[in-house]
Amino acid sequence: MREALFLVVAAVILFSILLGLVRVVFGNEPVDRMMAAQLLGTGGVGVLVALAAATGEAVLVDVALVFAALASVTVVAFIHRIWRVGEGPRDD
Amino acid sequence: MTELLDAAVLLLAVTGAIFFLGGSLGLLRFPDVYTRLHALTKADNVGLGLLALGAALHLGDPWLIGRLALLWILVMAAGTVSCHLLAREAHREGRTSWRR
Amino acid sequence: MVVLDALLALVLAGVAVATLNGLRRFRAVVLFVVFGLLLALIWARLGAVDLALAEAAIGAGVTGALLMAALDRLRRTESSRAVAGSAPSLWPVVLVALAAATVGMVAVLSLEPAGRPPVAFHLGASGVDHPVTAVLLAFRAWDTLLEVAVLVAAGVAVRAVGVVPSPPSTEAGPLQAGLLRLVVPVLVVLAVYLLWRGSHAPGGAFQAGALLAAAGVLVQLTRVPGPMDRPALWQRPAETIGLAVFTAAALITAALDVPLAWPEGWSKLWILTIEAGAAISIAVLLMRLFAGGAPVAAATSDPGKGRS
Lengths: 92, 100, 308
Fold this sequence. Notes:
Chain A is mostly helical.
């Protein structure tokens, strides 16, 4: 019974990942795409935690832990390598 | 007792999922960077936190609960610093907050 | 459950097509990172946890940062962005891929399942309890040795391309430095844990190395100059220790009996030593790939001439 609940939760979070994906594909500027990617990362952690609760496989929590530990790397790389404040907007 | 646990797990998991959904909807619908960051970090902190708490109550193994807690702290830290960095750069670029 | 899996598969295919579609490079980079995330979820759903861990470690960490650094370097060194009309159409590729996937699926589904899985049958002889590690480091150790050599070759190639670029730096700030104080130790502990766990549960050298590389990338992004920018005595030994340990093990076992056949009862120790060396090398080599060039001493750095 609870397993089914967590499966539904996983599906809901997957759906919200899909919504975020819209922002990645149709964002107006790089910041939008980056924020959406960050949200998708957290969503991935959420899906893995929900799946771990649904199936009882503890090792999925380890995969989620790896994702969580690395959640900041892409944004930090974006700030330091992509977003140049003085150089004007570019979305290419 | 198990009914109470069932109700608690149900409430936590569902609310967590709602916050995730809210985060995505906010990202799609809010008007500027700052408000979108606000929506984003809610999904990070509250959404994942409630979900992790529900999963911890459901699974029960202490090692697992420890790992779930560590996971939540890491996501919160990453979300906090990401939000700060993005907002700082947006501010340096001269973006002003959206007004109605 | 089936709905979830079908949704994941469809979204993955969609993201793959979207990544290749169009001319916006940054969008493609972000979509590729998302692709890695979804792929890790799918590996987890398929029960391939080692792959899920590796994909999470590489995709969420090093790959995104590497592609962004590459895009930045490209933007600052390309002379002009002559956008020739519109992007080429993806339809031929998509149709061919769909056809190939259908044929492949039909072929795989029509196979008879293996009567007695060979790896499980011989697991006892390998000395470890985890089938993936047994294949990588006991049955097919030769392949893994060559893979480590390939990575070292990549490191040599990157060093040969030029010196480390010095892009304009963005101030890191106290919050980012504080984040490092939390995340880097956690990543190191996780890496050691995954390395040690590889003998009996999903984990191993590559996952550990990728996690350490991500920690190194964070440090490289925060500190100017970073650990890969200035020549230091530890760099070359760290980059080659994996290959050195593995080759030494091969030579020693060749002298004893058969090359890469771990002595009875001691195989776990041999495998763990090799994996530890490999993890260090993988980490430093991935950091070298991210840094993008050979280290250069501060006094002789020449801004603007010949490098970006």
